[in-house]
Amino acid sequence: MTGQDAKRRAVAELVQRGAAVFEPVGGPAGVDLAVRTGDGQYVEVVVMEPASPDNGRAFVTRRFRPRPHLFILCVTADGEAWPLPSAVFERFAAGAPGEPEWTLDLAAPMDEPLADRLAVYRERWALIADYNAYRSTLADPLALQVRLAMG
C-alpha cells in the first residue's frame, strides 16, 4: 500500500466515523492530516508506510517531541493500520539517545512480539475519531485495553 493509498484509507475510515478530515497546507511540518472530532477536538496524524520492502512492519521516523494530540498511523505492507499515539510510538521505538531516527518494528521480539503488546491499537480508528473518549488511557496499552473492555 502506497503512502497516498494509506492516506486515502485513513480519510475514509475517519469520515465514516463522523470526523472531519483536512490536509494541512503550511501547518506543522510532517503532519499529513488534521482531524476534527465530533466534539470539536483537533488531532494531528502522520501517515507512515514501511521503511523497507524487506520488512513491511518496520517504521522509521526522525525524532520528534510527542504530543498528546499527535498520532503516528503506521500502515503495514499488508494494509494493517496501527494508529499509535505519538507517546506510544516513542516509548516502543528503538534508537539510541542522540541518534536522529527512531525505528518501530512491529515484528521485533521483546518479551513477546511488539505487535502483540500493541495489539489494542490495531485498526482502532475510534482512538482518533473519538479522541476525547480515550484521551486519558491512550498512552498506556493496558489501561486502554481495560477502558475498551468496560465499553
Features:
151 residues; alpha+beta; Trna Endonuclease, Chain: A, domain 1; 5-stranded mixed β-sheet; two-stranded antiparallel sheet; 7 strands; globular
Folded structure, characterized:
The protein has 151 residues and is an alpha+beta fold. The protein has helices at 3-16, 86-92, 114-117, 126-129, 131-134, 141-150, and strands at residues 20-22, 33-36, 42-48, 58-62, 70-75, 81-85, 101-105. The chain contains six helices and seven strands. The strands form two sheets. Strands 1-2-3-5-6 form a five-stranded mixed β-sheet. A two-stranded antiparallel ribbon has the order 4-7.
Shape: globular
Q: CATH topology, which one?
A: Trna Endonuclease, Chain: A, domain 1
Average pLDDT number: 90
Q: How many domains?
A: 1
Query: How many β-strand stretches?
Result: 7
- Content-based structural category: alpha+beta
| Approximate helicity band | 25-40%
**CATH structural architecture:** 3-Layer(aba) Sandwich
Order of strands, main sheet, comes to 1-2-3-5-6
- Largest sheet, described in full? 5 strands, mixed
Contiguous low-pLDDT stretches (5 residues minimum) are none
Termini Cα gap: 32 Å
Order of helices and strands: HEEEEEEHEHHHH
Beta-strand percentage?
15-25%
The CATH class designation is Alpha Beta
